[in-house]
């Protein structure tokens, strides 16, 4: 989930946009309404809005400056997770993107997923299965996704204790296959093994030769493989450059 504040100051009536995986829209609405209690809060889907990811170019510095032409945009703001993810653009459906961001090119949604897989950025229920994915193992502390100063929340004690102890044995990491896999690719949840057959982690999701997997940090630099049918398919993992330098523990 990503949250965006639309009101300009605390004096204004709060308006928050919540970005979520469309496949769980109904369940998220029901979950939020459980906690509304008697507060005057209105929770409404926004089918008239469209969401765009504005991915920076390959030139140095492209990720640091926000596009200037945003008259038609309801919201154009840096992606709160990481600078390498560029910006989030929310506009009315049918808005002219070339006018909002002159010189931009409209890509395919798979271009966006390939970019975030390269960077090891998880998103949606495939990458972060509800009830299974742990915040610290999913690197949410690197992406403005966890507060260690706010009051109590579900799972706070375990999350805070693990963070302060500094022992995180598994993390979500970008993985790459030597070449795009044929057919349906790798089933979600497939076990990843070391060359000697030790369990190294599980594949979460991917496309083509790229993906994201939950891996034991002790095996990150080893040759890895997945059993597909009767064959073993090799893959390699890497540590994203945007991570804090002292991140893996």
From TrEMBL:
Keywords: Mitochondrion, Transferase, Transit peptide
Recorded GO CC terms: mitochondrial matrix
GO molecular function, one term: transferase activity
Top-level lineage group: Eukaryota
Entry-linked InterPro entries: CAF17_C (IPR057460), TrmE/GcvT-like (IPR027266), YgfZ/GCV_T_CS (IPR017703), YgfZ/GcvT (IPR045179)
Pfam families, alphabetized: Beta-barrel_CAF17_C
Keyword Transit peptide in annotation: yes
UniProt subcellular location: Mitochondrion
Any single GO BP term: iron-sulfur cluster assembly
Domain called CAF17 C-terminal: residue spans: 169-245
PANTHER family documented for this protein: TRANSFERASE CAF17, MITOCHONDRIAL-RELATED
NCBIfam families registered for this protein in UniProt: ygfZ_signature (TIGR03317)
Entry protein name: CAF17 transferase
Organism: Myiagra hebetior
């Amino acid at each position: 989930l990503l949250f965006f504040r639309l009101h300009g100051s605390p004096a204004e009536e709060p308006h928050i946009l919540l970005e979520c995986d469309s496949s769980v829209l109904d369940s998220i609405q029901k979950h939020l309404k459980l906690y509304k209690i008697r507060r005057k809060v209105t929770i409404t889907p926004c089918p008239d809005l469209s969401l765009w990811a504005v991915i920076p170019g390959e030139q140095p510095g492209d990720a640091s400056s926000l596009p200037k032409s945003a008259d038609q945009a309801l919201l154009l703001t840096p992606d709160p997770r990481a600078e390498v993810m560029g910006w989030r653009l929310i506009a009315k459906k049918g808005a002219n993107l070339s006018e909002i961001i002159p010189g931009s090119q409209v890509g395919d949604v798979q271009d966006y997923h390939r970019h975030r897989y390269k960077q090891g950025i998880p998103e949606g229920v495939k990458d972060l299965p509800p009830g299974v994915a742990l915040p610290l193992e999913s690197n949410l502390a690197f992406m403005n996704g966890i507060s260690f100063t706010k009051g109590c929340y579900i799972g706070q004690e375990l999350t805070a204790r693990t963070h302060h102890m500094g022992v995180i044995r598994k993390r979500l990491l970008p993985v790459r296959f030597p070449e795009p896999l044929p057919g349906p690719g790798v089933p979600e949840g497939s076990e990843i093994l070391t060359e000697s057959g030790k369990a190294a982690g599980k594949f979460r999701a991917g496309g083509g030769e790229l993906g994201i997997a939950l891996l034991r940090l002790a095996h990150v630099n080893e040759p890895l493989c997945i059993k597909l049918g009767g064959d073993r398919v090799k893959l390699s993992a890497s540590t994203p450059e945007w991570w804090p330098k002292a991140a893996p523990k």
